[in-house]
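Fold it.
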Amino acid sequence: MESKYNQKAWEQETELGRRLYIHNFGMKGMEFDGWELVNTTSESHPPDESEKVYMWKRKAGKEEGLVQVRVVETNNWRNALQYHHGRLMQSMRSDIPRGKGKTAGIGDIQHVGQAPTNEVAVVVFTRGNLQISVSSVGLNLVDVTPLAKALDNRLTKSPTKTDEKKLTATRQKPLKVKIRKKEKTVIIDTLPEPIPSSGWTRVLATDGEIRKEGDTLYLVDEQGGDRTVEIINYKLK
C-alpha cells in the first residue's frame, strides 16, 4: 500500500527546523503549569539517536490525567522527519491527519489524533532535529494541545528576562560566520557530553542548515554568505 505520508513534501515545508538544533534536551518538572513530572526514562538508538520519555500527572484538585511525552534527538532536521515518518508508518492507523486550527502551528510538521469528542489525544511533531509525541495515556482523556504548544514554544521562543535574570537561560555572544557556498562551516567544534538533567542547548542560525557529525556542529548554506548563530544554554532546576 502506498503511504500518504510524503517526507519530500515535509522537507519543502520545513523552514525554521532547518536552522535549529537542540542538544541534550531535557525536562525537570516546571515546564507545564498544573502538572507534575512523575517519571523519566531514557535510552539510546543506533547509530546516534537518543530517546527520553516523560510521564506527567495532573496535580491534585483537578480531574486525574496522565500524559506521556517522548522526545527523540537526532543529528539533523531531515533525520527527525525520517523518524517521524517511521513512527507514523508503525501506527495501527494508516491516515493520521495533519494538524489544523489550534494544532496547525505546532512544530515544523505535525500530525494529530482526535477522540470522538474532538479532544486532541495525541500530537506527534518535529522541531529541528527533534521528533516529539505528546499523548494522553490515562483513563481520563486529556486534550494535550496546550502541553504540545508549551513544549514547542520552549524550543523556539527566546527566553524571558526572568529566565535570564534567574540564570536558568544564558545567552552566548552571537557567532558571526561567513559561509562558503555548499561548504560546511564549524559552529561548535565539540559539543558537550550529554548528561541527563544537566541542561540543554539551543542553536539557531539566521539561515542555512545545521547538522551534527560526530561531536561537531556544522552550518551549511546553498547560497553562502554572512550568517549569525545564536546559542542559548538552559539549566534544569
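The chain has two domains: 7-156, 161-234.
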